[in-house]
Design brief:
636 residues; alpha+beta; seven-stranded mixed β-sheet; six-stranded mixed β-sheet; 26 helices; 16 strands; 37% helix; globular
Length: 636
């Protein structure tokens, strides 16, 4: 029997919507959980400037979430947005971008997931969902074309994300990819600060506690039936040609061909060679493990698997696997991406492949960010080994590589039980609470966000980007095809000035990509190809310069939002362990903090921001067409 709907109505249509731009659905779906009101809002006049995804989300966040509206306030917005290429025949165009004020930094958040949500949303007639308010009881949002309902989710309470999807699939008699479900597990319900939003079995919007925001709104899930609305294109032939060129790049370019064949699996063995694989909470960069067994073909061997992938995608990753041996043999898991092998494995001293794949999936099901969990769990393991934390404090003994103990910690954190209640605040807050020698072992940024699953002491561009970014995670680093915008193809990774100019110079590219409704991996092509696809879809003449300008506009808006939230230049630093000098490995002779202040100065100069205040300069804002933002930031 279907649960009682707390609101059940077709989304209210505007009286006279402007003609939609080709490639777009042309409507935003608005939901107020406090009142049960559901309505649609047309948008067309500023599409070219904001595109969708993070561009649209940043605009909504800045305009609608004031400085006193913290992450857990009902007036905080949760924007689930896609972009103009979603649902079109370009690889990986089922993308979802989540934008909100996040729980870890209490600042701007932009985090991406793939799968099928973005395509299903567009086929239902919407470019984004904007959620505000707080439901009186646990609810879920059901979308089927023009029918939008806020439904009671009492029967889903306590279920993990896979169980939630299975229950909703059965309830609506849909399976496969006919309905996309993005939900929170116990961690989101219990407001764990690094809770994620997981969907379509293994796709995760993970950064800056967006799952905690969803949990605070008492929104268990958003399930969207693959709609029936057609999408109009300006130049179908031109779009297909651009899509073919993008696919050709992915399959043949040396920088992306391994990604095409193996997804992110090559990262484990390749990053180890560079000293960038985090091992045991940054205490070493060396291992006695035979790393040839961690090459991508061997990582995938031994697991029966089938393609799961994402909408319209030809990449060979995102598989569903079966554990072939060990105590978890026979269980279905999603193949870990690189960060899963890192956060659920090497960072906590776990190197058994079957155990890592199982633990990674348990994190997805609980809806915990695998990276932050790795920093939390690794911190506890190191502190217990060194006597900075006791068995009495933690509740049990937790040693390096203990998969059962790590799973017990997942449960304690997800339900905020015992010591898990403190750990649910994230490694920064937990380590500061404990203090003493334990605090010196924690890996985090002073803003409160967690780094990605790398040892950034050997990858300076990512540490600088993580600490200066305004979206709760990396904003521009790890660039490809940077020569396209006049940057050198190679730099000295330990020359602070060169690193800073590269990170500052590429700012904007990722925001452009994340506004299109696709995947960062399938969009790892020349920006010119993406601009061509966008132009063919919409009828605009979009250039490389337009793309970078759009991305930098978005970065400036997110920066302005964070400044308004009180997040300034004083927290653009790594923790003591995060910024420490490696004790061994390829990067042991290099200490990033020796060059940190010079790197910050060069970065600020390159992006056109004022280092004293953190603000984009008046000249920068004028160049970006953000005169109104200049008035907000620079008025006396």
């Amino acid at each position: 029997m279907s649960p009682t709907a707390t609101a059940s109505r077709p989304a209210k249509k505007p009286a006279a919507a402007p003609a939609s731009v080709p490639g777009y659905a042309g409507k935003l779906l608005r939901v107020n959980l406090s009142t049960g009101k559901i309505w649609t809002q047309p948008w067309a006049e500023d599409m070219r400037e904001y595109l969708g995804g993070v561009g649209l989300g940043a605009k909504i966040l800045y305009e609608e979430v004031g400085p006193k509206v913290h992450w857990d306030h009902p007036d905080n917005r949760l924007v689930l947005a896609t972009g103009p290429l979603a649902g079109l025949p370009v690889w990986g165009t089922g993308g979802l971008t989540v934008v909100t004020r996040g729980a870890q930094t209490d600042g701007a958040t932009s985090t991406q997931a793939n799968g099928f949500f973005g395509a299903a949303l567009k086929y239902s007639g919407y470019d984004a969902i904007v959620v505000q308010g707080q439901a009186k009881k646990l609810s879920y949002l059901y979308i089927n074309d023009d029918t939008v309902e806020i439904r009671d989710a009492a029967h889903l309470k306590g279920k993990d994300t896979w169980e939630t999807q299975e229950a909703l699939d059965a309830e609506h008699a849909l399976s496969g990819h006919r309905m996309s479900v993005y939900s929170i597990g116990p961690a989101g319900e219990n407001l764990v600060r690094f809770a994620a939003i997981q969907g379509d079995y293994g796709h995760v919007a993970s950064k800056n506690g967006c799952g905690a925001v969803m949990g605070k709104k008492k929104l268990k899930a958003v399930c969207i039936v693959r709609g029936t609305k057609a999408l109009r294109l300006h130049d179908p032939r031109g779009l297909v040609q651009a899509a073919d060129d993008i696919a050709h790049d992915l399959k043949t370019d040396p920088a992306t061909s391994t990604l095409y064949r193996w997804g992110t699996l090559p990262g484990v063995s390749n990053l180890y060679k560079l000293g960038v694989l985090p091992i045991k909470n940054y205490t070493t960069n060396l291992t006695t493990v035979d790393m040839t067994t961690w090459e991508p073909a061997k990582l995938r061997a031994g697991f029966d698997h089938r393609g799961h992938q994402c909408n319209a995608c030809g990449m060979h990753h995102c598989h569903i696997q079966v554990i072939g041996k060990g105590p978890k043999a026979g269980e279905l898991v999603d193949e870990p991406e690189y960060e899963g092998w890192s956060g659920a494995g090497w960072q906590i001293g776990l190197t058994d492949k079957e155990s890592i794949t199982w633990l990674n999936t348990r994190l997805d099901r609980a809806c915990l960010d695998v990276n932050e969990f790795g920093w939390v769990c690794g911190w506890v393991m190191e502190c217990m080994e060194k006597g900075h934390l006791t068995e009495k404090q933690v509740g049990f003994k937790l040693a390096w590589g203990d998969v059962d103990g790590a799973y017990r910690l997942i449960q304690m954190i997800s339900h905020r039980e015992g010591f898990g209640d403190l750990l649910a605040e994230g490694v920064k807050r937990a380590s500061e609470k404990i203090g003493g020698e334990a605090a010196k072992c924690a890996v985090y940024t002073k803003k409160g966000a967690s780094p990605r699953g790398h040892d950034h002491r050997g990858r300076w561009e990512e540490m600088l980007d993580t600490c200066t970014s305004s979206n709760g995670t990396m904003e521009s680093a790890n660039a490809t095809h940077q020569t396209e915008i006049g940057l050198p193809g190679r730099i000295n990774p330990f020359n602070g000035e060169e690193v800073a100019r590269m990170v500052g110079g590429i700012l904007g590219r990722k925001h452009f990509e994340d506004s299109l409704g696709g995947c960062i991996f399938t969009f790892r092509t020349r920006i010119e190809n993406l601009a061509r696809a966008l132009s063919a879809a919409t009828g605009w003449t979009y250039t490389l310069a337009d793309a970078m300008r759009m991305g930098r506009r978005t970065a400036a808006i997110l920066r302005a939002f964070n400044l308004r939230c009180g997040i300034g230049t004083d927290v653009e630093y790594p923790s003591a362990r995060y910024g420490s000098r490696p004790v061994d490995g390829p990067a042991k002779d290099h200490n990033i903090m020796d060059q940190w202040e010079r790197m910050r100065a060069v970065w600020y100069e390159t992006v056109g921001y004022d280092i004293k205040t953190g603000k984009p300069t008046r000249e920068t804002l004028k160049t970006l067409g953000l005169d109104s933002l200049a008035k907000d930031l620079w008025r006396k």
